Amino acid sequence: MTTNTAAVRSLATSRAEVLKAAFVAFVLGVGLVYGAGFANSQSVHDAAHDSRHALSFPCH
Amino acid sequence: MIARLLAAGLVAGVVAGLAVAALQHVTTTPLILAAEVYEAAQHARDAAEQSAPAFEGLRRTAATSVATVAVCIGYALILLAGMLASGDAIGPRRAALWGACAFAATGLATSLGLAPQLPGAAETDLVGRQLWWFATAVSTASGLYALLRGDSVVARALGVAMLVAPHFFWPTPAAPESTVPAELAARFAAASLAVQATCWVLAGALAGLVWRLSSRDETEAA
Questions:
Q1: I need a surface site. Which of A19, A35, B13, B219 has the fewest CB within 10 A?
Q2: Is the CB of A30 less than 8 angstroms away from the CB of B74?
Q3: Is B80 on the interface with A (CB under 8 A)?
Q4: How far apart are CA B179 and CA B107, in angstroms?
């Protein structure tokens, strides 16, 4: 019984851990795509210009 | 967990990004450079805006490659996050399929309302187009997930509605007064979609592969 409870708890923790990691990765991923594909700063736009066009992000 | 996830996204994104940057160099970039010749000629006639690009030659190739690598790392991380959150077993094949679905969301669905454009093409308000692009990508991705993974008829119907809804709100098309020849624009639209598909599928497949290899290491260590 004790073992079961411990196993359940460790499963639950690992699911929370997985979701936390997934959230961090998602936010970082969206941040990178936003920076390269959408950010309106002129210098970022100039550097990423050809990639924005090539990956069909709205540009200009 | 977080470190392994970020490392997998980083490695997959860098490798996929460099490959896609090479592909861009021979497919889309020559078309962009050709379009800029027409754009510069138009500007010279109008004698208004400055038309010289901010980066040229090797610096331009490097800047483009860095941006592409950044996008590929982002795509790899988003795909890994999606698969982890939905409880999928992560491997190269499944991750490539996730990449293909993501391409349907950010490439195929968005290109119906906003065809990929060359520099010099006629344009409307940028922020409005970016918002529509983003909303369409999110709605299509959620719709595909509900349609492919939904257990109930209601979930699937909702999925279909989310796939269709963005297309009732297409951004107003610009007046057709582009300086770019139609032949170049058509080739570019096709090439751009192919490059974006490669970007998603390759980033996904590599992310799945690196994740599987790194989890094998971890199991052996344990």
A1: B219
A2: yes
A3: yes
A4: 24
